[in-house]
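> example.struct
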């Protein structure tokens, strides 16, 4: 099993509902919602171009997937994440936009957000003791010969190339897209997500994701509200979270309830 610390909106957020429909998987329930009707695209074409982000689920990477260090445990990780989240003041990214990110499309801040950059760097540092060292095979999968010197250094120091000064917050919506398809995808994404980007993106929680086995889809294990708990409404998590390992700050919700809530949301959007 691998763990990751990501940002993802709550399951009740319209952005989560739209992303689940676009990607073909609800990261909370694991269900495949009805695909959106996108002019000029078949379901097969959408499924092909969203295969990569579908496996990882709708998220923004804060700490990339890692194996637990043998000297620690899931319970210790949960306790540390709960404590850490309580020390961080929630904030907003003023504006997100549809962006071309190399060969991919996704959502990204229209201007750099220093609060997010600081949060990401703090998480990487604070939770590095929970990360098992990378194996030689894991390092090779990152294709180190193509990395810049800072990225190569980050890979060996922090287990991931794109941290610290190399970090750019984003939320992937496609896999690689051929340049000939850029205009079509940009139009489709603006039509689906544009109306949801008029308000700031609220960063009010951190999510612990899990990959149960190599190659398996990642799912939300638990959501951890930022700041004082009294300032938050309850945040939904999956049924498999151990309530004895975490405090009342994280409220378990069954996969079935998550699926029903997602379907209700889709009906209202």
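> example.seq
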């Amino acid at each position: 099993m691998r763990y990751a610390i990501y940002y993802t909106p709550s399951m009740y957020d319209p952005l989560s509902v739209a992303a689940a429909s676009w990607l073909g998987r609800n990261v909370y329930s694991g269900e495949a919602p009805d695909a959106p009707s996108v002019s000029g695209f078949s379901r097969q074409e959408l499924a092909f171009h969203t295969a990569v982000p579908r496996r990882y689920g709708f998220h923004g990477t804060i700490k990339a997937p890692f194996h637990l260090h043998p000297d620690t445990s899931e319970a210790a990780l949960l306790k540390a994440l709960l404590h850490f989240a309580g020390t961080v003041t929630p904030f907003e990214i003023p504006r997100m936009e549809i962006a071309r990110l190399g060969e991919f499309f996704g959502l990204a801040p229209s201007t750099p957000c220093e609060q997010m950059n600081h949060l990401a760097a703090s998480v990487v540092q604070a939770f590095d003791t929970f990360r098992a060292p990378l194996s030689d095979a894991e390092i090779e999968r990152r294709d180190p010969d193509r990395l810049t010197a800072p990225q190569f250094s980050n890979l060996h120091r922090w287990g991931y190339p794109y941290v610290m000064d190399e970090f750019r917050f984003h939320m992937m919506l496609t896999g690689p897209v051929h340049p000939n398809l850029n205009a079509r995808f940009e139009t489709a994404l603006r039509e689906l997500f544009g109306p949801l980007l008029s308000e700031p993106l609220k960063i009010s929680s951190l999510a612990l994701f899990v990959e149960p086995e190599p190659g398996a889809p990642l799912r939300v294990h638990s959501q951890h509200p930022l700041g004082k708990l009294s300032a938050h409404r309850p945040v939904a998590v999956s049924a498999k979270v151990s309530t004895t390992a975490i405090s009342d700050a994280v409220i378990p919700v069954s996969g079935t309830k998550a699926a029903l809530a997602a379907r209700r949301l889709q009906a209202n959007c």
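> remarks
The mean pLDDT is 87.
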